[in-house]
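From the thread on structure requests for the teaching lab: each student submitted one protein with a one-line request. Submission from student K.M.:

"Model Zinc ribbon domain-containing protein from Algibacter miyuki, tokens only."
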Amino acid sequence: MAKKKEVTVEERLRALYDLQIIDSRIDEIRNVRGELPLEVRDLEDEVAGLNIRLEKLVASLEVIDNDITGKKNLIEEAKTLIKKYSEQQKNVRNNREFNSLTKEVEFQELEIELAEKHIKEFKVQIEQKKVVISDTKDRLKERQTHLKHKKNELDAILAETEKEELALIQKSEDYKTQIEARLVAAYNRIRKNVKNGLAVVPIERGASGGSFFTIPPQVQVEIASRKKVITDEHSGRILVDAALAEEQRAKMEKMFSKL
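Reply posted by the TA:
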């Protein structure tokens, strides 16, 4: 059985920097989308909320219309009763019966008066709700237009980048399988804890990439020798020499052009 070839530190560093370049490219694609997915989601929620509000307002109008119909029916019933009691008054035998019927007529007249008052109040409510409904419809139309615009914007960006992003995510997973789990775990941890997700950076002008902290000359020599994995004591990032970084960037650019 052939002995498995041992991976050198330099090969590990190259693989780690390749992984960083791929993941940074994915980050760039997602940054182009920016807050658009969130904006679209928020607008969808707002439109849904406005639709629900509109439905409730329209339903409340129907309830008020039914209440008005109920009051109008009550008025008609009261008028019928007034007519009935007035007819009965013509045939009463004594004042007590007459007064009793008079009270019934007065009560029905009060019922009519109260019902008419309620109808007026209901009509005021209807006018107020119609204003709110009109405003809500205007707001809904404006939000729907804005949502359509943002969706088109997002769809356009997705159409341009989705295929590349999916291919890069697969590449990222493939590269992780080529690196020992311990290093991948360290890389992921550093990426979460540092700015811009840069876990592996080259030495630039004597300092670690993206940092102003100078790397001592002796440490720079060690990094350039590619004999061990060295991290920046200030940021925790894994450091590679500029030459290795340049070689891997050129290699990865060729790969990206084929995606």
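TA comment: Residues 95-177 form the longest helix (83 residues). The chain has two domains: 9-32+180-257, 36-173.
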